[in-house]
Amino acid sequence: MKFETKDQKSPAVDIREYLYLIKKHIWLIIFCFMVTVSGAALWYAKQKKVWRAVSKIQVASGMRLPVPDVYSETAGSYINGQIQIVNSKTLKDRVKERVLKEGWSKKLGDGEVGPKIEVHPVGATDILEMNIDSTNRQYALFYSKVLIDEFIRFKAEKKETSAESALRELAVQTSTLEEQIKSLEEKALNYQKSHDMVAFDEVGNIPATNLAQLQYALAQLRNQRDTVKAQLEKLEGKTDPYLIESSLARLNVPAPFVPLAQTSAQAADTLSDDDRETNAHLPVPVSVLTYFLSADELKGYHDLKMRREQLQDELIRSSKIYKEGHPKIQGLRGQLHTASRQITDEIDNLKRKLKARYAALELEEETKKRSMEEWKKETLALNSQIAEYKNIKAELDRKRKLYGVFVQRIHEIDLAASLDREKVQIVEEPYLLPDPVAPKIPKGMMAAAVLGFGLGIGMAFTLEYINDTVRGEEDLKKVADFPLLALIPKFSSYQDKEPEEKVLKPAEAPDQILETFRRLRTNIVLASPASRLSILLITSAIPGEGKTQTAVNLSVSFALSGVKTLLMDCDLRRGQVHAYFGQKRERGCSTYLSGQASLSAVIQPSGMKDLDILPCGVYPPNPPELISSEAMKELLAKVSDHYDRIIIDSPPVINVADGSILGVLAQGTIVVIEGGKTSRTLVRRAVETLTNNHIHITGVVINNMDETKHDYYSQYYYHYGYKYNAHK
Question: Could you read off the pLDDT of 399-426 as tens digits, one per residue?
């Protein structure tokens, strides 16, 4: 629902909100600013001036020592190493000892013997800049000179002892290695003798070689056996000579398996160095005899078949010339019969030959299997011995290589000891900067000012955040989703005045007050165009939020617009409507509901055109029973016939149940909240009480709002609405 007093947020609203917040808490911000700046000024006033002595030295790594045990730094970490030496406790103690000898502890007075030391490289060079900070100018200069001197002496001392220590250590390690190498050589020789492996290095693993040859031969035998079996099956099953020859011609013999151990020129190219060394002495496997039928053995069968085909062709030609009983025909038939018998005999001969060969193959294969089992056992036994022997040799090789490295390092250290490995040169003698480096008062005061201002802003935002009161439309949205009908400021003209003086009087009231209630009246009318909301309840969460004054001035505003209005005071506990119009409350709503007076006797004129009032009457002991009675419903029905607008002032809804009972009878309910004082929790409870009783809430009025306590959006809401309506 949209009202005329609401304005859409512009992109600049957030900035203006912050500016408003600063303006609102300006004294808090100023206080934080002044405290922080004053504190910083006092702190700087107590600080002593700090002087800085600056010097530069060049450190060149020169030739590095070759082993980790020796005093050295690698090129990549050399500069960082020098910085760590300068900052080390060892070097500082050496400098401190000289400082105490010179009597500086007495000269300083405050016992300062360890000034601040800062060392850093100059760019990517090998030059170090050393800064010494002290409250005593001469002490900073003296300390800088002593520090450089002790650094150079420390480096020199370490250089003298480093080479000697390294040589002693290497000599001990080299001697130990010599003993270990001799021991390993003896161990390897004894192992060869004890396990009969003297010739292993020359000829390799003989059992493994024999096993590989047997595997190769066995693979060939299996292939031939399969071939012979296939040929035999063809001869057994195919009786047609042409089919027999065709089947034999299509037989292919599989290639035998060749083990990795063979040393042919072609296989040697594919071996690694270790495999080639291991198999260098393996002989070429012996070829196995061929047992299956060859082309030569099938030649007799082929010749007989060719002879039979020639006789058949000649018989066909002769049959065309001679009769069946001719001697030539009979001779050819005899020869053809003989050829067929010879072919059958040849096939039987081939069968016998293949069966004999198949049996021989099985016998030879069984023999090689038994031989393989024996060599396999020997190979497995020898493999474990070989593994142990190789481990001994590998350890021996490692010791020999390490021994060579140590001997080489000894020569390098001898060479490095005779050279100048490191150089330290003074690039800039220590000197004092003309101005003190601390305290940096301008920069510090600027930081304090920024901190003070930021602290003030932060506290302002914190106060706004922890403030739980409803101060405007944004706070209202956090509690309930009901429209803000009006934001009524705290009018200075109403302060410390009697109720009669707070009634809206067109001739005397300022334009600001008139416009505020005109806007409230208009928003109520627009809140529900379909119904006139003729019976309107005005309530609040707790007492003292200004609901009665709001009900009074809203009634006056309706009456000024020509609407015949009745203001009913149904707060039968503390009703005060009569006081705003100088009336008495003895006759009113309670006396009518209890049957002690007629309606005409309790309704009183307000002294203003189109506005009558119905006071609360005598405070009864049972307000809820009277309000919920049938007489109350009849009262509302009767007055609805005579008035266009009925405004009911009720008790707060949290304290008693009267407001909820009246809300059910009314057509709309307006909740009045005192801005900047009523907490969101109380407002939420009031809204929940009304909504749980199915009471229609038309909207909310934030009353008595102090301009210094409501949020930016509500202030903008108020001023925009006032100026807009003022110029309509």
Answer: 888 888 878 887 777 666 555 556 788 8
